[in-house]
Amino acid sequence: MVQKFGGSSLRDADRISHVADRIARERATGVDLVVVVSAMGDTTDQLLDLAARITRDPDPRELDLLLSTGEHISGTLVAMALHARGVPAISLTGAQAGIRTDSAHGRARIANVDPSRIRGELDAGKTVIVAGFQGSTADDHLGADITTLGRGGSDTTTVALAARLEADRCEIYTDVEGIFTADPRLVREARLLPVIGYEEMLELAQQGAQVMQTRAVELGWVNGVEIAVRSSFSEHPGTVIKEDPFVEQRNKVRGLAHDRKVAKVTLVAVPDRPGVAHAVFAPLAEAGINVDMIVQNVSHAGTTDLSFTIPEADLAKAKRLLEPVVRGLGAKDLTTDAAVAKISIVGAGIQNAPGYAARMFGALAAAGVNIEMISTSEIRITCIISRDDLERAAVALHRAFELERPEAIVEHPARPVARRRAAGSRAS
Ligand code: ASP
Ligand code: MG
Questions:
Q1: Scanning 134, 200, 286, 348, which has the fewest C-beta atoms within 10 Å of its C-beta?
Q2: 404: helix, strand or coil
Q3: Which among 65, 78, 63 has a CA at the least distance from the CA of 6?
Q4: How close is the Cα of 131 to the center of ligand 2, in Å?
Q5: Chosen CATH of 256-400 out of 3.40.50.12780, 3.30.2130.10, 3.40.50.300, 3.30.2310.20
């Protein structure tokens, strides 16, 4: 089994002791255990901050080596806590655990996992603690460099190890009980979901639900790893992310996601001619700014308004890049609004049934919420609204789609029969 404990579960010595108790209990059942750890509390942020105070432009290689130490600290302490409980254990860095990556510092992707060291330690009866969020570009003696996998990357470490080791269980322990129909801090009636499909989880995570790194969900999907998201402070089974065969029988909207950290940019009265969109978006792409929703209005008298959203953190940079573009194009104005928020409804069933957009817009209208922009995917509808309206909008949508009601799942009678036949029994 592979388990992961997040930074909030390892915030201080007391919490590390609590986690060690949990691991020791699990190990006592006889199961082979690999435990991935994140850095304690806000360690990664603190290290980033420290580097930023030394230089505005830290060397990416050095920064990765620095950041990787956060997970070394928590890994060694968890191993020591297990030793103190009489549980044989060893902590390994990502490199020692066989995580090999490309050389894209700060956002490296796992190329492969060599599980031999981990297997050897498990065979020797040890619980193996692995520093998450990191790997190395090659074997040590080949002049390897340490890389990190991007923020939240220990989720990806966890799922990659579960896939490679063919673990029968993969559990992510965090400070919430699982995946909810909406953020419980925003919507009091939010309900814990026992199961969610990979595709739905991916959309929720992309649209702002912060429970798991999206790459980890993708990796789980591709490799068929079922991922349990649970609280390290309770015994609740949490939410299982997996292929959901009953998706069409469940409530067609599975949950809401929101994101406050977006900003809207509008180019007013840009000339309506070929090449304009490219002139606007190419410099943003070059600067690594992720443009999300794009709306271009119908043109009037040869000009049109072009609006789009970006992460709020990139707003100042985007303005700097776009001011000369706006002047060059002869557009009238560049306006920005950082007081917006994004709210989405997500559900795999949306694609099979009409009327979801109308219901969403109706619920927002009844709540007096103005919609500024709209975008959709096959299983999602997203609106940009004023940030002040976010809570009201979330509560209204949660009610409108009856998300507080537990899902009634009627197992289709044909399914078990079909499965038995496929398994080879002589069904009459
Ligand atoms: N410690 C890293 C971060 O804060 C990785 C992780 O927590 O998964 O982003
Ligand atoms: Mg973290």
A1: 286
A2: coil
A3: 78
A4: 12
A5: 3.30.2130.10
